[in-house]
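Following up on my earlier message about flavin-adenine dinucleotide. Here are the inputs again, as you asked, copied directly from the submission form:
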Amino acid sequence: MPAGYDVVVVGAGIVGLAHAWMARRRGLSVLVIERTPAAQGASVRNFGMIWPIGQPAGKLHETAIRSRELWLELQQAGAVQLSTCGSIHLAHRDDEQAVLEEFCDQGSHNVSLLTAQQVLQQCPLANPAGLRCGMLSQTEMRVDPRQASRSIAEWLAEALQVDFEFGTMVCSVTDGTVQTTNGRRWQAQTVIVCGGSDLQTLFPEYLQQAGLKLCKLQMLAVPPQRNLSPESAHIASGLTLRHYQSFESCPGHQQLRARIASETPELDRYGIHVMASVMPDQRVILGDSHVYDHEITPFDSAQIDDLILRELRKIIRLEDWQVSERWHGIYAKHPQQPVVVTEVAPGIRLCTGTGGAGMTMSFGLADRLWNQWQGVAS
Ligand SMILES: Cc1cc2nc3c(=O)[nH]c(=O)nc-3n(C[C@H](O)[C@H](O)[C@H](O)COP(=O)(O)OP(=O)(O)OC[C@H]3O[C@@H](n4cnc5c(N)ncnc54)[C@H](O)[C@@H]3O)c2cc1C
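Thanks, got it. Here's what our run produced:
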């Protein structure tokens, strides 16, 4: 008879870890099965930005704030190191400044405008050339994504007795039995498949019809910058204002979008907006681009990297611009939903599609889902 658990989670990315934690918090026994020796998917390839500012007012922003509380809980428990660094959106053009002012006036998020001088006092990363103003938000936080997935898994194992099987690929889930390619089997009341961008191995018939899109992002890092504090606020640019849904409610948003499309169509072509995140060891993670579905290839484009660096040089200053690492990540995303959750059979659920907000949203989304599944009002 195979070993039994209340819950088996497939995938040890941030979504799988969030479900494992939320199930364990509710007193359930949990096993997580991950095909690689340590998580290597989108959850270790990102900026490590916990980014509530990108979520529109209402339920999504509330979920991001709930996630934020849960990240802080993890920090207090010693499961992760994080910085409550906040974020600054920089404006270098009139239309960017207009959108930031409109967003602040809406009062939906806890933000304030900074003069160019105030930005430069707070943030040595910001490039003073042409800087009009900035928008400060206190809610954003930073983790090192490469450490966070590992340390959260270790904490779940040691402090909460969640079991993990790394280097083990699940090949089928039927009638409460989870089977792996190395011939092992486990029984579970509930199986949650959190396979990230893998829409082909488990239940492809559901995942490929769920309206998910795959998106490839190119990223870079520069070596430790000794003049920067690991507590430096995340930096985003005017280009970012067209990327996150939260800014769409601003009257000047369309005009900004149209101006960027006509001046720099190459940025729209590759979905480029630019951001910078300072890691605990003072490396700076830089990005990014967005290329979808049939345009995704295994090969990274030097042209895209050059465009990202060209735009970043306009908004930030670094002591050392020599790129030390280049990589790409792929996530699954639904155009309208913050996550796709499908019950394919009693007790078997698929959960993926957090798009570019999985670090920000996963804990809050998982908490809400577990309340819903257990009939608790939230
Ligand atoms: C470049 C980049 C930058 C980003 N920046 C940010 C950011 O700063 N802030 C933010 O909020 N979000 C960001 N995101 C989005 C965020 O990283 C993703 O939404 C999130 O990591 C998705 O988590 P996941 O667990 O679904 O997927 P993954 O991290 O890909 O994990 C899925 C896991 O499932 C495993 N798996 C799959 N199939 C099987 C199987 N059959 N058996 C066993 N294991 C299996 C895989 O090996 C993998 O480890 C970024 C994403 C990328 C790519």
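One observation from looking it over: The longest strand covers residues 213-222. Hope that helps, and feel free to reply on this thread.
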